Amino acid sequence: MWRQSNGEELVKTNVSYCDGLARRDFLRVGVAGGLGASLSLNQLLHAEETGHADPARDDVSLIYIFLKGGMSTIDTFDLKPDSPSDIRGPFNPIATNVPGVHVCDQLPQVAKVMDKFSLIRSFTHHDAGHGPADHYMLTGYHPGASFNGGLKPNNLHPSFGSVIAHKLGPRGPVPPYVCLPGMHNSGSSAFLGASAVPFTIEADPATPGFAVPDLSPPLALDAQRLGDRRALLARVDRFQKSAEARANADTRALSVFSQRAVDLMTSPAAKKAFDIDAEPAKTRDAFGRNSLGQSCLMARRLVEAGVRCVTVDHTNWDTHTENFKTLRDDLLPKFDMAVSTLFTDLSNRGLLKKTIVVLTGEFGRTPRINQEAGRDHWSRCFTVALGGGGIHGGRVVGKSDRWAQDPADNPYGPEDLAATFYHLMGLNPMGEMRTPEGRPIMLSNNGRVIKELL
Predict the structure, then answer these.
(1) Does domain 2-453 have CATH number 3.40.720.10?
(2) Edge-to-edge strand order for the sheet containing 355-360?
(3) What is the pLDDT of residue 219?
(4) How far are the Cα atoms of 58, 114, 164, 306 from residue 175, in angstroms, in the given order?
(5) pLDDT digits (tens, 9 = 90+) for 114-124
(6) Which of these, 42, 45, 310, lies nearest to 178 by C-alpha position?
(7) Would you kindly state where each structural domain of the chain is located, as residue ranges?
(8) What digits encode the pLDDT tens for the residues 30-44?
(9) What is the mean pLDDT of the chain?
(10) Model pTM greater than 0.85?
(11) CA–CA distance from 357 to each of 31, 37, 63, 72 (Å)?
(12) For 396-415, what is each residue's pLDDT tens digit?
């Protein structure tokens, strides 16, 4: 058992994910399978263009890759090779293509694209519990004592993607905000309402025969042969009936957007964006034929089609036991392929300059290795990786102390991360959104733009 400085005990567990969620709960395939407040097709089609955006940055998108459970950044991006054996672990640093910057030897392909992204090694916040830390890292706001992490969704503040959807609205026929393979419990819109709820794929793009449940049956039809658009709408409604019942949204609002639902269904751009089978087999292989790899590929396709924010929710990085074996044999080989290929692919297509990519979990892992060869929760200091969209590659911002226990300088937190990518997307981080009661809420909760990255 490891304690943080506030005395909180971080308890180890042998379940697959230490809040008790099994993988089958995470990947619920099908539109009716627990959509909760993620958006069915009609509901996603309205977003308010409020707020103050810089038109010159309207083409910038965000891919937020959330490594659920907490990536061990002391074993990946901030190794401590000179520390005692119960801290340093078995992995060794290797040189990257940026002089003086090293990553672990389990990430040889990532090392070759270090010039395309940067590291914040002094990232920190105060909560080492999965639920509230998740909420903090997905919204920029700590949820406080009243938080109920078991709710689906559990947002007390809107997720980053919902804020972006609310402020900037859609580009063309594709949704402004998409979650895949499913929506994280803290990935929804809170007080921003139905217009800012994400379109959630609810299916793993690595699964053979993958199809988006809301889209694939109507998209299998030839839109040009449908003389009766009302017949198409009836088919759409049939596929959404159970989802709408769960969404608890205003049914009058749903009917307002029904016509635009038909427009999305018949849009060639939407068909193309969600059709991952259109990718060459060589490209799919390069990303990796697994959930993280194919989700990263899908994210690239979506931002290329105009989606403003894609959140990839990937589990399970909660390595309380056999941390090094799990990283070496499972998590890091997939991460290495997916992330290196994503940055390379975005760059080759001319998309990296207008696509921000963020790689983070809710926290890192303890400096000290526990008795089960694992590492426990540690939020006091960890590393966040990010690049593209105006962020200089190859930089290291801040540093941790000798054991990666605390920041040694330049501490940054979730509010600052939010302020930085809002700024890069043309939003004023100090701008406001309003609750239904009219109470103003700041976008970034007084976050600072991380100028060293820009």
Answers:
(1) yes
(2) 199-200, 177-180, 309-315, 61-68, 355-360, 382-387, 118-123, 396-397
(3) 40
(4) 15, 31, 11, 8
(5) 999 999 999 99
(6) 310
(7) 2-453
(8) 332 333 344 444 443
(9) 84
(10) no
(11) 27, 25, 5, 19
(12) 999 999 999 999 999 999 99
Three-state secondary structure along the chain?
CEECCCCCEECCCCCCCCCCCCHHHHCCCCCCCCCCCCECCCHHHCCCCCCCECHHHCCCEEEEEEEECCCCHHHCCCCCCCCCHHHHCCCCEEECCCCCCEEECCCHHHHCCHHHCEEEEEECCCCCCHHHHHHHHHHCCCCCCCCCCCCCCCCCCCCHHHHHHHHHCCCCCCCCEEEECCCCCCCCCHHHCHHHCCEECCCCCCCCCCCCCCCHHHHCCCHHHCCCHHHHHHHHHHHHHHHHHHHCCCHHHHHHCHHHHHHHHCCHHHHHHHCHHHCCHHHHHHHCCCHHHHHHHHHHHHHHHCCCEEEEEEECCCCCCCHHHHHHHHHHHHHHHHHHHHHHHHHHCCCHHHEEEEEECCCEECCCCCCCCCCCEECCCEEEEEEECCECCCCEECEECCCCCCEEECCECHHHHHHHHHHHCCECCCCEEECCCCCEEECCCCCCCCHHHC
Strand partners, 315: 68
pLDDT in tens, 173-213: 889 999 999 999 999 999 998 889 998 888 899 998 888 87
Neighbours of 441 (CB within 10 A): 16
* Residue from 413, 446, 442 nearest 127 by CA: 413
Judge whether 338 and 330 are in contact, CB under 8 Å: no
Distant-in-sequence, close-in-space partners of 290: CB < 8 Å, separation ≥ 6 = 206, 334, 338
Kind of pairing between the strands at 177-180 and 309-315: parallel
Residues 289/260, Cβ–Cβ less than 8 Å: no
Spatial contact of 375 and 323, defined as CB atoms under 8 Å apart: yes
Q: CA 276 to CA 355: how far, in whole Å?
A: 19
